[in-house]
Amino acid sequence: MDRQAYIELLLDHYEHPRNRGRLENPDVQMSWGNPGCGDVVTLYLKISADGRITEIAFEGEGCTVSQASASILTEHVKGQTLSYAQNLSPDDVAAWVGREVMMSRPRCALLALSALKLALQEYRASSPTASG
Ligand code: FES
Questions:
Q1: Cα(24)–Cα(37) distance, integer angstroms
Q2: Long-range interactions of 55-59: CB distance < 8 A, separation 24+
Q3: What is the pLDDT of residues 41-100, one digit of tens each?
Q4: What pairs with residue 61 in β-bridges?
């Protein structure tokens, strides 16, 4: 995709966010904010006994890149295994949102990934038998 296509993708996700909202009785939820600006993303996850993220939703307030990246992240993570989510890296986010956006707004683009990593940490800590 070229630069314009990535910008259109981000705007589309910002204006029409996927998986936005709150899940009732999530297996784990996590809020994470960017201390530089106060923008925040909260993730809600439901995780099956065999270690698959069956549902994911997010709420948040913030800039276009942070909120659009959260929406995009939920699309990529939904239905995947815990180990897939655990192994996601900034390079994966760069592939989703475009390297230029990642270079210019890394903290915005990575806010949701940081929330996801912390959510998985918390899930493992509270579920000692969890795999992945
Ligand atoms: Fe705050 Fe983008 S300006 S996360």
A1: 29
A2: 55/23, 55/26, 56/19, 56/23, 57/19, 57/20, 57/21, 57/22, 57/23, 58/17, 58/19, 58/20, 58/21, 58/112, 58/115, 59/20, 59/21, 59/22
A3: 999 999 999 999 999 999 999 999 999 999 999 999 999 999 999 999 999 999 999 999
A4: 40
Check whether 128 has a pLDDT greater than 70.
no
Query: How confident is the model at residue 127, as a pLDDT?
Result: 83
pTM: 0.95
Q: What tokens were used for 75?
A: 């699309």
CATH among 3.40.50.2300, 3.40.50.970, 3.40.190.170, 3.90.1010.10 for 3-125 = 3.90.1010.10
Task: Return the residue whose CA atom lies nearest to atom 4 of ligand 1.
Answer: 108
Pocket test for ligand 1, best of 31, 66, 67 (most atoms within 8 A of CB): 66
